[in-house]
TrEMBL record:
Domain ABC transporter: residue ranges: 18-269
CDD domains associated with the record: ABC_NikE_OppD_transporters (cd03257)
Phylogenetic classification of the source organism: Bacteria, Pseudomonadati, Verrucomicrobiota, Opitutia, Puniceicoccales
InterPro entries assigned to the protein according to its UniProt record, in alphabetical order: AAA+_ATPase (IPR003593), ABC_Ni/Peptide_Import (IPR050388), ABC_transporter-like_ATP-bd (IPR003439), ABC_transporter-like_CS (IPR017871), Oligopep_ABC_C (IPR013563), P-loop_NTPase (IPR027417)
Nucleotidyltransferase recorded as keyword: no
Protein name: ABC transporter ATP-binding protein
Organism of derivation: Coraliomargarita algicola
Family: Belongs to the ABC transporter superfamily.
One term of GO molecular function: ATP binding
Pfam families linked to this entry: ABC_tran, oligo_HPY
Bilayer topology term: Peripheral membrane protein
Predominant cellular place of this UniProt entry's protein: membrane
Keyword set, alphabetical order: ATP-binding, Cell inner membrane, Cell membrane, Membrane, Nucleotide-binding, Translocase, Transport
Subcellular location: Cell inner membrane
Amino acid sequence: MLNVGRSMFNILGMTDLLKVSDLRIAFHSRGETNEVVHGIDFTVQAGGQTVAILGESGSGKSVSCMALTQLLPTAPSCTVSGGILFKGQDVLQMNADAIRQVRGRGIAYIFQEASSSLNPVFTVGYQIAEAVKLHRPDLEDVKGRVVELLELVGIRDAAKRYKAYPHEMSGGMQQRVMIAMALACEPDLLVADEPTTALDVTIQAQIMQLLRELRAKLGMSIILITHNFGIVKGFADEVIVMYRGDIVEQGAVDAVLSDPQHPYTKALIACIPKLGQKQHRLTTIEKEMA
């Protein structure tokens, strides 16, 4: 793995919120074992650091982050080994009650494609309220909290939208609802898995700006899972480049973008279309890379 530069958070010596060590994930089927993540290491600092995990589909980005809260299938179909320390506690050794406290309140997720993640038969207010009730059973005014969350993510007429069904909202609005749901318990770490998938560029920019504002306001750290270098610059502090289950390059975003070291990182950057550049054919990535 190549390390390029150092993020400002590492220079300042911030506290580790999440520390992943030698993480290995394997799936087992019909007597065969397929290891999809091969011993990766990374950390996320507390207090607002953003780490982007970048790579093409199938590189191991999402499955690695699902392991952070034991969201993967259990043995014998799947095995996860290594160390995942969240606030100093080993997630992989937690029982069901302990890990339930980490999910939502400690680590929350925004999953891909809000239209598929939201239940079409329940109102968005009901679905957010379920998340609030699960982790805040002491809260009396649940509806008030949901309306507050909808307002926080920039949804107008929040009290009215509380009663809306997912199909009555645009893709961008649905994504804002998913963000509100993730923020219901004020997590320390937000995992945003391709939060701008299937959105047009204008709405993409709005969602990324919203995440910036929420990060600054709430002080939460973020893991951004993406295949798009375009949304990493100006948003993340550090970038991790994954290729076929390995971390091949890691470092401060500006350093990686300006001086990539690994052939795969160079190829990914070369694939980005450049405004005003006349080119008949986009750059492609070879099937196998060193």
